[in-house]
Amino acid sequence: MEAPQKLYLLDYGAGNVRSLVNAVEKLGHTITHIDTVEDFARADKIIFPGVGAFGYAMQALRNKGFVEPLLAYIASGKPLMGICVGMQVLFEGSDESPDEPGLGVFEGRVERIDSSTKTVPHMGWNAAHVVGAHTTQGPDMGGDRRYYFVHSYAVPYTACGRQQKFVHTATRYGDEVVVSSAWQKNVFATQFHPEKSGAAGLSALQSFIERDLVRSSDLVEISAPATIEAALTKRVIACLDVRANDQGDLVVTKGDQYDVRESSEAGGDVRNLGKPVDLAKRYFEEGADEITFLNITSFRNMPFADTPMLDVLRQASRCIFVPLTIGGGVRDITDPDGQHVWPAVEVAGEYFRSGADKVSIGSDAVYAAETYWQRVADGVPPTDGTTAIEQIASRYGQQAVVISVDPRRVYVRSPSDAPSHHVIATSTPGPQGEAFCWYQCTVKGGREPRDIDVRQLVTACEALGAGEVLLNCMDRDGTNSGYETDLVADTKAAVTIPVIASSGAGRVEHFSDIVDRTDVDAVLAAGIFHRREVPIADVKRHMAEHGIPTRTVE
User: Fold this and answer.
1) Which residue, 227, 247, 340, 417, is the most exposed by fewest CB within 10 angstroms?
2) How far is the C-alpha of 74 from the C-alpha of 436, rounded, in Å?
3) Number of C-alpha atoms within 13 angstroms, CB side, residue 183?
4) pLDDT beneath 70, residues of the chain
């Protein structure tokens, strides 16, 4: 009997590799972590995932003494698959870390995506167009399938030089075309995350594991960049508010303007809409492009390592192969014994190791923004590297940090009534006929208002390194009356990072309306999905019928 192949994982400490391990196991295989230099010689195939900064990845490889063994492994002809930053470090260098040389396996340099013409990071589901015909059977990719991308740097696709020898697919993002996968001899690499790309990504991963992807050295004619068509979709996100009920069980709940309890006539219990992992799995199967867990229970009476949400993530990531976001409690935490202090960056790291791809920061983002503007007023540099946003983004990448905003309207008769805030004309007049309002940010689950508006918050957080905004609205929450268009449009215009519209969706038309009016990057809903009042498939079908690109489920 032929011995099973030895598949190894090269992990330099780059966040969520649990999802990749789960994807490999889903395909019926096992994978072993590379712990020592000697493991390279034992491996038949290696998968090299990466997130975060190019320089951090290269430094981590050097610190572990892995650079030379990795290059020797590649030179031996054994197959290697790089993912995201694991692909980027195979090039000669990156503008993200100009003084840090790459491995030089592929010719070219990684460059910053232009944020003056589009949202950055490039985040969402996009196509990977195969650019040339090969004499060797290639990875199972292409066609109408979509893959999950999340990156701020990329290799420009030019179809010139040696790109004929290694570019396998290219992807258009706005006015730029980038290399989305490379394949040269025994090295295959993707800019997208196959382990987060549903069935399409699992097929690409399976190609590498189960076939010998060794490309011939023949030059092939490849497509001109101008022929690569735009195919980025709008994301539909399912959100699950998770908390412990009065019996201590974790349940998915949904608030009515942030009140998650039934009426006193109905018993006053925490509204129970199902079990977190069961519902999340259902949404994955129904076609949700991402799933967000918002933890609204503090769990202060137990060590952080025992927090039930960590187990929710571990279970969910075993059966869900789209991005997972976790929010709530991403801050400095001290265990009940007072001995163990978890800095926010370590809290985030534990969430990533448990299966999360992004963390959502709420109250601490408000406090960080307040400090940012105070430092501006004091005439000192507004950033100092101490906030959770800065530290998490530095270690795990900008794309890993989501800012969750919980604002409410404050009506004024004219902008002069609130000179220190960003006031806009409102399409929802106030109780006294006020035609203007500003959006006041809150903390502690909406219970405490702060003297900072949404425009001030999101611009400060973008400067601190946040990669995405989850934009709620307390006035719309649970009303099923539609999204807060004025707020979404104003926020979208204020930042260059992606914005997710949340709060208020009640029917399919609300999703297409907010996209048409604001070009928001993603739409999120909760209760209407939980109660099956509006199925995810109906939302996507309606959006597609109205010319809004969406991902179909294989």
Assistant:
1) 247
2) 62
3) 28
4) 1-3, 14-15, 134-136, 217-219, 244-249, 254-272, 298-303, 306
CA distance 379 to 207: 56
Given the residues 122, 129, 168, 193, the one annotated as active site: 193
* Helix intervals (H) in 254-321: 276-286, 308-319
**Alpha helix (H) ranges present in 240-300?**
276-286
Q: Which of 39, 176, 195, 521 is catalytic?
A: 195
421 is known as an active-site residue: no
Give the active site residue among 84, 239, 437, 461: 84
523 Cβ contact list (under 8 Å, min separation 6): 234, 235, 236, 237, 483, 500, 501, 505, 511, 514, 515, 539
Task: Give the helix/strand (H/E) hosting 469.
Answer: strand 468-471
Tokens of 489: 């449009």
Angle between helices 276-286 and 308-319 (to 10 degrees): 30
- pLDDT of the residue at 258: 47
Q: Is 546 a catalytic residue?
A: no
11, 96, 241, 364: the catalytic one is: 241
Which two tokens mark 266? 């109905």
Q: Could you tell me what percentage of the chain is helix, strand and coil, using 3-state DSSP and rounding each to the nearest 5?
A: 30, 25, 45
The catalytic residue among 96, 176, 406, 468 is: 406
Number of C-beta neighbours around residue 1 at 10 A: 3
Active site residue 319: no
Do the Cβ atoms of 277 and 252 come closer than 8 Å? no
Supply 234's token pair: 């709008």
pLDDT value, residue 137: 75
Reading phi first (left if > 0) and then psi (alpha if -120 to 50, else beta), residue 421 is in: beta
Alpha carbon distance 415, 31 (integer Å): 60
The residues that bridge with 48 in the sheet, in sequence order, are 82
Q: Cα Rg for the chain, rounded, in angstroms? A: 24
Residue 412 · residue 438 · CB < 8 Å: yes
Contact status, residue 502 vs residue 510, Cβ threshold 8 Å = no
Ramachandran area for residue 28 (φ above 0: left; ψ -120 to 50: alpha; else beta): left
pLDDT tens, position by position, 420-440: 999 999 999 999 999 999 999
Distance (Å, rounded) from C-alpha 292 to C-alpha 400? 13
Angle 78-83-88 from CA coordinates, rounded to 5°: 95
**pLDDT confidence of residue 135:** 60
Contacts of 385 (CB under 8 A, 6+ apart): 391, 394
